[in-house]
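hi! just following up on the protien thing from before. the input was this:
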Amino acid sequence: MDYQNRAGSKFGGGGVASQSATNADRRERLRKLALETIDLDKDPYFFKNHVGSFECRLCLTVHQNDGSYLAHTQGRKHQTNLARRAAKDQREGRGDRDGFQPGMGQQVQVRKNVIKIGRPGYKITKIRDPLTRQQGLLFQLLYPEIASGVVPRIRFMSAYEQKVEDPDNTYQYLLVAAEPYEICGFKLQAREVDKREGKYWTWFDEDLKEFWIQVLFKTEREERYSGVPGLAPSGPRR
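and the predicted 3d structure came back as:
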């Protein structure tokens, strides 16, 4: 960086760089260093979102351009998270799985961004357990173009985790993901799900490409007295 001709400095002198100029110079040096060691096409944590920004899936950060992302990969936060991920993979015996070795400048498996083809078709049916009278929902999702070997995955998410609408603690969300389809989300009442055997289950029909989810909510009595010591769970009504 050229520090000449700054206010208050002599001609030909270095001058004193401001803090912002020093930071900009540091980021540029980190970006150039990263360009020599990282191929973004082979970086499993690099992701370009729908608004054109770049995300780091490891650190959950957002960057306005690739230079900012490259500088981030050389920073302390990213390197610390890489070390933690490597230690975790080593403990779980996944350190060299599929040719992936986390770390700067190492060869990684090519993982390109999957092109989404839209949301799946779905049908929702209200159900009630004939014995316990528990209310619930039965989801049927259609994935005719699902990728080979992929089984849909589900996750329950609280209202405070999502960023689509204002949080409301009376609701929760059920997310269903299956590449190459977009993630499908369903807004449910924030009631406790009964995850006992036979009450909550999922099933994927590989022949018909249909994914089924049954969700039954606990009764008001079970929610009220759940976890109370010495209180046995209520059985089916006679």
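The longest strand covers residues 121-128.
Residues 96-111 have pLDDT under 50 and may be disordered.
cheers
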